[in-house]
Amino acid sequence: MDNRRNFLQKSLLTLGGALVGTSLLNAKENIGVAAKKITINQNDVILFQGDSITDHGRKRDNLEPNNTDAFGKGYAMIAASQLLNKYADKNIQIYNRGISGNKVPQLAERWTTDCIALKPNILSIMIGINDYWHKRNGNYEGSAETYKDNYRKLLDQTLVALPQVRLIIGEPFGVKNVSHVDDTWFPELTRYQEVASEIAKEYRAVFIPYQSIFDKAEKRANGKYWTTDGVHTSLAGANLMAQHWLDTVK
User: Fold this and answer.
1) pLDDT tens digits, residue range 85-106?
2) Which end of the chain is more exposed for a tag (fewer CB within 10 A), N or C?
3) Which residues are CB-contacts of 165 (< 8 A; sequence separation ≥ 6)?
4) CA neighbor of 7 nearest in space, from 28, 26, 29, 35
């Protein structure tokens, strides 16, 4: 936390200007607020961001909030449908902007349009499995430290533009012995998971520990019941994720 405070203080001195200075100051103050269960307020804008786990087949040419086609068939759709039912009196708008194959650098490339411009009050990010998987396959030269550095830059940018945004961070996960995922994924993937947890603590985000959630679920049914390939969810797995996401709000 001290590092983030120092970053924002230095940015304030470097960039200057009343408008930017105010945004950075607000962002610094917002970081100091302890994470807790998030309250859904009147007219809130909620944004789900991430990779294929969030995307899950959504129609990307449909950019409307609260639209079935725009949400795909994953946890974001299930969570959004329940939110819209439960908080029908609050006029909330919910967007899904997950894109299959994304790593943190791809989020950064489209962040202005697919996050900042939407002005979310609540921002949920599920990212990281491709940052490891693509590196593992030789298609990316990143590392857990690259993941951490890029993630922090993304959140710093977010807090400057949206100092009051409330953050939810989902842990990247792999369900062992299902298709692509085997014991060789660990402990390297574990380091990426540790980074996600560290980032959540540093930015006072609500953290969803999906790895332990799926590990526990395997006591009820095997991994193939919850995921199709160890990473992408079945209908049951999508519901499992959604229910735990919904536990973070009130």
Assistant:
1) 999 999 999 999 999 999 999 9
2) C
3) 30, 120, 121, 122, 123, 158, 159
4) 28
Token pair for 211: 């790895």
Find the CATH number of the domain harbouring 167.
3.40.50.1110
Q: Which two tokens stand for residue 65?
A: 């909030």
From CA 179, how far away is CA 44, in angstroms rounded? 39
CB 47 within 8 A of CB 115: yes
- Residue 4 — very low, low, confident or very high, per pLDDT cuts 50/70/90? low
Angle at 80 between CA 192 and CA 97, to 5 degrees: 55
Domain count, the chain: 1
Parent domain of 27: 23-31+38-246
Please check whether residue 11 lies inside any domain of the structure.
Answer: no
Question: What is the model's pTM?
Answer: 0.87
φ and ψ of 212, to 5 deg: -70, -30
Q: Is residue 156 part of a domain?
A: yes
Give the pLDDT band (50/70/90) at residue 10: very low
Residues 104, 206: Cα–Cα separation, whole Å: 19
Secondary structure letter of residue 183 according to DSSP = G
